[in-house]
Specification:
Layout lengths: L7 H18 L10 H6 L4 H23 L5 H25 L3 H20 L1 H8 L6 H18 L3 H8 L6 H25 L8 H21 L6 H20 L3 H7 L1
Helix pairs in contact: 1-3, 1-10, 3-9, 3-10, 4-7, 4-9, 5-11, 7-8
Length: 262
Amino acid sequence: MSLPAYSTMFWVTAVLAMILVGISKAGFGSGTGLVATPLLAITIPVAEAAALLLPLLIIADMFALYHYWQKFDRRLIRLMLPCAAVGIFVGALFFESFSHNERVLKLGIGVLSISFVLFEVFRTQIFDRLGEKRPSSLSGVFLSGLAGFTSTLAHAGGPPATMYLLPQQLPRQLFVGTSVLFFAVVNLLKLIPYGYLGLLKVGNLSTILILAPLAYVGVRLGVYLNGRITDKWFNRLIYALLFLTGVQLILGTNLLDFALKR
């Protein structure tokens, strides 16, 4: 089983992305997992980055489910999953339409990245405006569908799902467990369109086997950190990284090279 000829920069970003994915699956750091696909998309095509990450996300999901098994809200899961399935279908159609236009895909991932950073910056104001009232079922339908859509494109369904789950005022363990189960099922469902579109390739297996242990390391680290320390500064660092990555994808050039040319 030969190893694909990836660059050194790919392996650096892949190791970092995989550890961050594991940490996010354990519920530590609200935006940790969002940066994985944009990071990889800097070094390889978007579709390849998304396809490479999906099996690794599923492995991380299994580790996270072990720690949060049976700690979820059944009512919320029953409402969210069917809507997310519709979003996955729409996301797959988008992927198919632009699969041969790498510039559009990278621009889309970059815009998503910046949007999620802006969401985090104005998060307090958003939830203050929503007030303490729990979101309606209609809001859940829309946000869950949006989570399925953005998750299909960039494994970035966290912000829409959080906008619905956080105001539910669930206990911490129940909130994390519900999120873990939701995305575990969403990621399994994404195997269907990814397989249909030909994104899943046997040639990626060796890379997946190398990176898979890092998912476990990340989950264990996230479980350890969760509840022990505040994730405030960690989140700020992650969102700064996400912002820079998003800008780089939108510009379509290496930021360091861009700065040196000025």
